Amino acid sequence: MFLGGSTMKIDILSLFPDMFDGPLGDSILGKAKDKGLLDINITNFRDFSTNKHGNVDDYPFGGGAGMLLQAQPIFDALAHTQEEAAKEGISKGRVILLDPAGKKFDQKEAEKLSKEDHLTFICGHYEGYDERIKTLVTDEYSLGDFVLTGGELPAMVMIDATARLLSDVLGNDESAPGDSFSSGLLEYPQYTRPADFRGMTVPDVLTSGNHQKIEEWREKEALRKTYLRRPDLIDYSQLTDLQKKLLAEVKIEEE
After folding, report:
1. For the stretch 159-173, what's the b/e string if a residue is b when 16 or more beta carbons lie within 10 angstroms of its beta carbon?
2. Which terminus in the chain has less CB density within 10 A, N or C?
3. Quick one: pLDDT at residue 128?
4. Which of 117, 127, 130, 216 is catalytic?
């Protein structure tokens, strides 16, 4: 499990390593790598092909359209990365397959993964995988009901959503818990200076200095946004008495 102050190791198996340079090397994730909070290693599993042409795909048995990723290159690439991790005293961790049939990835899943010390992402291409690859994995995830050309983009999204939850990555440990979905609700509206921009003014309560009123306003507006945009996220059994009162007010105001 991940312990505060430790480094999370992330291995990525991909045919297109260069795709990760920008998204994982800049901004918050780049800074996290510089601080030693993230150790990201990308392995091109084509390097483990035993075919003289470096092929990693083949036609499916029984016929059909498209090509499938072969099991052997991915088996060997994963064995290599796990051996390297073992030399550092790092566990095999969770092995994640990006697949349209996988479990839908959301904030709660990101929170679970952020507690691990080692994650490996297998990024596929072509028509799919040899089914035997799935014997290697601990988790299968999908971003939603749509199809992408490969697993690289979903892997980037999952890494970003997960890594930002690690201690010290954001530089303010209060930032992540206040994000949309972390509380089960969408995030309340936020404003910065100037207080009056082209006639659009900041709600008076936010400049009042009354912190209790500000927190209550934020709670109510988070409920309002969620009620109007994503009512499916509201679990009434989990609402506090104050939230139930505020939500009742919202419903009356929005009718």
Report:
1. bebbbbbbeebbeee
2. C
3. 87
4. 127
116 tagged catalytic: no
Q: Of these residues, 23, 60, 94, 100, which one is catalytic?
A: 100
Token pair 């990693």: residue = 56
Helix, strand, coil content of the chain in percent (nearest 5): 45, 15, 40
Specify the pTM: 0.84
The three-class DSSP label of residue 106 is coil
Q: Where are the beta strands (DSSP E) in the chain?
A: 8-14, 38-44, 57-58, 68-69, 94-104, 118-122, 128-129, 139-142, 196-197, 200-201
Task: Reply yes or no on whether 254 is catalytic.
Answer: no
Q: What tens digit of pLDDT does each residue of 34-68 get?
A: 999 999 999 999 999 998 889 999 999 998 888 99
Is 127 among the residues known to form the active site?
Answer: yes
Say which residue the tokens 């099991």 belong to. Answer: 71
Q: What does the alpha-carbon distance between residue 40 and residue 29 come to, in Å, rounded to a whole number?
A: 10
**Among residues 117, 130, 140, 179, which one is catalytic?**
179
Residue 191 is given by DSSP the state -
